[in-house]
Structure formats: C-alpha cells, structure tokens
C-alpha cells in the first residue's frame, strides 16, 4: 500500500518566508525516500488544507501539523478542512502537551489518515531547541556557563500555548546541560522583554518556539530584548545587553533537525521511517560540525 506524508502548516499571505521552513523540511524528508509521496499544505497559502488529500494518490496518509501547540488549528481547523468526520479531540488522549495520533477515514476521498499531534509538543522538539542553541553559538557542547531561554507567544485564548513552552523548558532543565533554563513569553509573564533579569549567566541563548521567522521573531523580540533599537538595522550575535551576551537564534522551526520531529510523529503513528530518522540526524550532525 502506498503511503504519504502530508504536512499541514499555517503559511501567510503577508510573509513569503513563512512557508519556507515547511518546504525545506518536506524536501529533506522527500530525499530520504521514506514515503511514496510528501506534500505540503497550508491554511493561508496554496495548496490549501481543503485540497490537500486530493493531491495525494496514496491510500494511507500520515498527517502531521507543523504547529507549536494543541488548540484551535489542530483540534478544529485541520480536522474540518481535511474532512476527518470521525475526529474528536479526546482521541488524542492529551493533557495539552501529549497528543498521540488517531486513525480516521477522510470523508470525501476514503483515504486512511493517521492524524498526528503537532510537532511542537513532541518530546523530540526539546532536542531541536538544544540543537538550535548549538547552531547559533557554533558550539556542539554548548551548555556549561550558559543560560537558555525558551520563548513562546503566550495568550489567554489558548492555555496550551504556554504549556508547550513550559514543557520543553522543564525537559531541557532536566538534562542538566545548561546552568539555567527559563520559559519566557511575549504576551504574558514572565516576559522576554526582561530576559536578563531572569538569568545570572553571562551568556544567554534565546530560542523562540515559533515555526517560522516573521514579524514576532525578526522585529518584536529583538527590539523588546534590546538587541537593537530598530530591527531594520540588524543586530550582533551575540549582542551585549545589560552586562550579558545574548545569543538570539531566531525561530526554532528553521532548524534542519525539525525534519526529524515530523518523522518522529509519523513513526509514533506506525510509519516505518526509522532509517530516515537516523539519516536526518546524521546529516544534521555533519552540517553543524562543518559550520554550515
């Protein structure tokens, strides 16, 4: 039976770069040959969610949301647009950060769809955040003497948004790799604006848990942290702020190892992709070692 991976991402009508990580990670997975087909679909761009399954010939589909948290898009929009009529959020058996998968039948195409939880809550995302810290510092052993800030948007409309940030901060803290690990937010306390107040470490790596770089990661956060007075003039990496060196990584979703998380979600739903996962990890290690 032919199998396909379909990646569901937000996209943007205003920012052409919003979809770039999605296409990059899809290309990485496509190159492994793990699936007969790999397709990208978007809420705000083409190809759309609603037409996503109609572009796939495979009878069996692994549908993975390239979103940070569980909530409105993963629990309502995606199942509706992909016509997963049997869907119920309780099928994920989740507390807000532990979505598994549900096997459903697409109402209009009849395809078997393994609907996976969002990449942002998968345990392997913690590894991507750490990898992002390695990439921005150029140090595969970064940790001792460094603080790490995991940054999220934060919103009163979806408590799961903050849960995902805190979940990964807790997991990384448990690794005992960094001297300090904190979860910070843009729109709720503790705020990233005051990042230096939460750390004693001279060096702080700041990793936003966003899928793509855009207005928030390239304009708001750099200015709010004091990296620059005007994002259009850019900033140094690291930048000196209040006696600390801030290593700002930009969106975690642009890290090449993100392809691994997409594959891990599919693997948890039953896809035989272990060889592809090892290939992506090895290629990522080689890329960091070479400084690319």
UniProtKB/TrEMBL annotation:
It comes from Haloarcula limicola. Keywords: Cobalamin biosynthesis, Cobalt, Lyase, Metal-binding. The keyword Electron transport does not apply. This is Sirohydrochlorin cobaltochelatase. It holds the Pfam family CbiX. The keyword Translocase does not apply. Transmembrane segments: none annotated. One of its GO terms (molecular function) is lyase activity. GO terms for biological process: cobalamin biosynthetic process. SUPFAM superfamilies: Chelatase (SSF53800). Gene3D superfamilies: 3.40.50.1400.
